[in-house]
Amino acid sequence: MSSPLQFQLRITASMELANSLRADPSCAAHPALRAILQTHHATLKCQFDAFADYVSEAQKMGIGNYPLYQWTRQTIENPEKKAKYLQSFTLHVNGDEVYDKDVADALEAGLSKLIEANGILRVSRYDTNPANNPQPPARV
């Protein structure tokens, strides 16, 4: 029986690796990481870039339809948070932001082997259970 929860993995990269991945999301300069991503049909998206894209889209489409606009804008404008999110990358599998447990398990196992020597500092797992995740900030 499969779990009703879905999962998302993120990696925290060294600043050097993060800069390289942002410049070339195909990971051409990092064959071990590239091989794992290709095996699992995964791609990386820098958290900071995702936040910046969200803010840009909200400003174009009207911020009223984007409940996290204020929080996200404040986050990317905060130098400490910006530095943190520039090193954080979400893994998408087959274009999806969340995926089944077996997919997350296999991907996490491969990525965990790259910690330290390959510039990956940490692999983090998140699930879709609202009790385990921070809820959007209240609107003021």
TrEMBL record:
Protein name: Uncharacterized protein
Source organism of this protein record: Paraburkholderia tuberum
